[in-house]
Amino acid sequence: MTVAVKDIHVRYNVASSDAAAKMRRPERIGRRMIGRFPSVLVRAVAGVSLVARAGESIGLVGLNGSGKSTLLRIIAGLERPMRGSVFASSTPVLLGVNAALLPELSGAQNVHLGCLAMGMSPDEAREALPTIVELADIGGAIHLPMKTYSSGMAARLRFAIAMAMQPHILLIDEALSTGDAAFKDRSKARMDAMRKEAGTVFLVSHAAQTIEEECSRAIWLHKGRLVIDGTAEDVARRYRLYAWKLAKGQPEAAADLLAEAFGEGFDTTVHLIEPPGTGAPPRHANGAGSTTPELLKATFNQRR
C-alpha cells in the first residue's frame, strides 16, 4: 500500500454574511467598523479514511465544496487536519492548476526552480530540462516569460515538471482539464507508465467521463464525507446521474440517488502495524507521515 488516510477531519471558520444579517443592528455596525465579521464553522472533510495501493489511479468526484482539493492537500502534507493521520510510502507530489509558477520568469527558469523545490540538484535540474520541454511540447516558448503562456501551455509545463521527479505518488487537482487532446494523450501515457512501475495517482475532476477514462477506481465525496468507493465506471455513472438530476432541477430525485449511494458504501478502518522496537513513523519534510507499504494494513467494514 502506498497511502493510508485514517479518519481525517478538517474544519474552517469562514466569514458569513448570513450570520451578520441575523445580528442586531448596533452590533453589526460595530463589527463592520472594526473589520470583524461573524463566522461559521464549515466542515471540509469529515471522517474520511481510505487506502491506496501501488498501481492504482484513483479519481475523486463531487460537487464544489465537497472536500476533494482539501483532501489532496492533506495527503500532500500541505495542510494539517484537525484530527486523523496520513501515512505514505514516499513524498506525494501535488500538481494543481494554481501550482506556483512565477509569471515574470521564463519557462526554463521556472523549470529550474521547480526541480530544485522537488529536491533535485542543480545538475539534475539542468539535465531534466530537455525531457520537460519535450513532454510539455512548448518548443522555443520555454525561453519566454510565463506571463505570455496560454493556460494550456502553463498546464502542460506544470505536469512535465511534476513528472520529471518520477514521483511514486502523484496528486492531480484539475490540472489536466486545461490541456488539449494531444496533451491529454501524452499525460495519460506518462501516468500509465508510472502506474506500471507501481506508482499511485489521485485525480480530481468535475468531469465524470474523465474519471471513467483515466482511473481504475473512484471515490465520491459529498460535503466532506465519503459517499462511495468503487470502480471508476460504477462511481462515475452514479455521480453523473446525480449531477444530471440536480442540473435538471430535480433535487429530490438527486437526494434519493445520494442516499442510495451512501447506503451501499462501506467504512474503512485503517490499522497501522509497526515492527517490534520501532517508534512513531518518520515524518516527511512536508509534514505527512511516512512509513513503508508493507507496514500498512486496512480492514473494510460494510456500512449499515
Overview of this structure, please?
This protein is an alpha/beta fold. It has a domain at about 5-90 and about 200-300: 3-Layer(aba) Sandwich (Rossmann fold). The protein has 10 helices and 12 strands. It has helices at about 15-20, 25-35, 70-75, 105-115, 120-135, 150-165, 180-195, 210-215, 230-245, 250-265; strands spanning about 5-15, 40-50, 55-60, 85-90, 95, 170-175, 200-205, 215-220, 225-230, 265-270, 290, 295-300. It has a 6-stranded mixed β-sheet, sandwiched between helices. The protein has a 4-stranded mixed β-sheet with strand order 2-1-4-11. β8 and β9 (about 225-230) form a beta hairpin. It is globular, with a radius of gyration of 21 Å. The model is unreliable at about 275-295 (pLDDT under 50).
Sum this structure up briefly.
This is Sugar ABC transporter ATPase. Helix content is 38%, strand content 27%.
CATH topology of the domain at 3-92 and 201-302: Rossmann fold
First-last Cα distance: 26 Å
Number of strands: 12
Please provide the ordered H/E string of secondary-structure elements.
Answer: EHHEEHEEHHHEHEHEEHHEEE
List the total number of helices: 10
Low-pLDDT segments: 275-295
Order of the strands making up the biggest sheet: 5-6-7-3-8-9
The SS-based structural class is alpha/beta
Instruction: Tell me the quaternary state.
Output: single chain
The major β-sheet equals:
6 strands, mixed
Could you estimate the helical fraction of the residues in percent?
25-40%
Radius of gyration: 21 Å
Beta-strand content estimate: 25-35%
Question: What tags apply to this protein structure?
Answer:
four-stranded mixed β-sheet, 304 residues, transport, six-stranded mixed β-sheet, single chain, nucleotide-binding, alpha/beta, 10 helices, Rossmann fold
